[in-house]
Write a structure and sequence with these properties.
Elements (H helix, E strand, L loop, with lengths): L6 H11 L2 H7 L7 H8 L5 E2 L14 E3 L2 E3 L3 E3 L5 H4 L3 H12 L4 E2 L7 H7 L5 E4 L5 H13 L4 E5 L9 H6 L9 H8 L2 H8 L19 H11 L6 H10 L4 E6 L2 H9 L4 E4 L13 H12 L4 E4 L6 H10 L3 E4 L1 H32 L13 E2 L10
Parallel strand pairs: 4-11, 5-6, 6-7, 7-8, 8-9, 9-10, 10-11
Antiparallel strand pairs: 1-12, 2-3
Helix pairs in contact: 1-16, 5-16, 13-14, 15-16
Amino acid sequence: MPVITNIADLKRLYRRRVPRMFYDYAESGSWTEQTFRENTSDFAEIKLRQRVAVDIDQRSIAGHMVGQPVAMPVALAPVGLTGMQHADGEILAARAAQRFGVPFTLSTMSICSIEDLADAVGEPFWFQLYVMRDQAFMERLIARAREARCSALVLTLDLQVIGQRHKDLKNGLSAPPKPTPAVLLDLARRWRWGLGMLGTRRRGFGNIVGHVEGVSDVSNLMAWVGEQFDPSLDWAKVRRIRDLWQGPLILKGIMDPDDARHALDVGADAVVVSNHGGRQLDGALSSIRMLPRILDAVADKLEVHLDSGIRSGQDVLKALAMGAAGTYIGRAYVYGLGAQGEAGVSRALDVIHKELDTTMGFCGERDVAALGRHNLLLPADFATRWV
């Protein structure tokens, strides 16, 4: 059994155990992948201030996100096709998150459905919504999330059109995989993954198949999806969703101060500074580099969270110290899921928790709420290099 000490260890194991098309789906960005790379490399430009001879006994990294208590200010981000990374992946990840005490966010494009998750886990989870042209389907999705007692709605705003991801096209990405000779050869090497998939009935997009007129199986699903992301999405439509959903509303994909102010105007409870993990607009700034501008615009009026690029507890600390009220991990937990199933997600959370707690101690802090710019050393032009 390999010794896991960091997220990179899980990633190496994940790469060996998951079919190539699903590894590439997670570990890629759009076009040149510049933004995908800089989401992580820009964290390295932020340095930490070490403090000594400070009482750091009885440290606490617990907090709240949109009013909900969390064991640490980290939520599991919505990731499409999670149930293709490991059989019943959304259920396993949600169980690990809830046992740990952090939110799990189910994607619209999940393999396990809202109802699957509600039946399998005991506590409310968050649901992430994509805006589709089919208004009736959208309203049913929101109603299904309400019926499942989802405790927050995460509305993703940056998928009006889809960024091209070269690897997905070359791999012929589909769920379940199409049995081409190359795919079958790859699957033969990933027998653990295959055995798991043989043991589950959940292999399609559970939130969509059977819930949309004319979409009864995977063969006609992809054509429907390709036509459904709504390029006419505007703030009036966001406000209508705000009216339909009475619980906490989190708007994901905010990368501009003006958009953050619009989010405030429509009644959002939180925004997520996110560039979709570098999977949409290639050439955009990293999320961590945009965070200060969003904070300057709205931080005293609503919660500002950060997504994209977090691979360690130190990254979490840097985002919190810069002013984020919460953070999200996507790839970091997917690595664990593909590597070791539910236990791997738990291990990813353990790693991040320990790194966050230990680093906070080195910085001379006892409570995560006390983190601030005084804990960091930033390049003078970190937030102003591009104007």
